[in-house]
Amino acid sequence: MNLARQQAQKAIGLSNGRDVEALSASALEMAGDSTRAERLSEDLKKRFPEDTIVQFNYLPAIYAASLLHGSDAGKATEALASPSPYELGGNYETLSFVFYPIYLRGKAYLVAKKGVAAASEFQKILDHRGAVRSDPIGALAHLELARARALSGDEAKTKAAYQEFLTIWKDADPDIPVFKQAKAEYIQLH
User: CATH no. for residue 146?
Assistant: First the structure.
């Protein structure tokens, strides 16, 4: 998480552009640095009061990440209702951040133990792989889909989703925590 904070700070030092601030705020929030994330969110809110992507995608996603960090899945799901009409209408050419509200909504459903609803959200991401490109949530959606399927009790689909994630990450550094955790979860299925 320190690396996420460092990279976010470095990015902000290079640019205060809308997308850079939004991604940095999101990374900082997920890394537990709510104070800096909130400052960036406030700046986005002031500088872009009529920007649809900022108001209905970036800010709700950052706020939802904060709520999930505090384990408030219900409020996170509510916060992510406003992006719903806009979530697949973003500019995929420059940024796949438009999928973060979907990803975070899926995470909120996982926290709330709503496997079917969570699976539906992660499947939306997987249905748009070309738009997601190399964004990490593209691969992570497979892992979260596996977790959602496990909650739903669908063993065959759970194994398939884990296998897909592990295949995608087969060349990953074996010490990456999420990769180690996914392998352990997969082994427990057997």
Answer: 1.25.40.10
Rounded distance between C-alpha atoms, residue 16 and residue 159, angstroms = 42
Range of the domain at 120: 50-189
Note the pLDDT tens digit of each residue in 14-57.
988 898 999 899 888 878 888 888 999 999 999 999 988 888 88
* Selection from 120, 104, 102, 33 nearest residue 68 by Cα: 104
CA distance 122 to 42: 29
- Per the CB < 8 A criterion, the answer to whether 117 and 152 are in contact is no
Residue 58: which of 32, 82, 33, 94 has the closest Cα?
A: 82
Question: Alpha-carbon distance 83 to 129, whole Å?
Answer: 20
For the chain, how many structural domains are there in total?
1
Predicted model pTM? 0.84
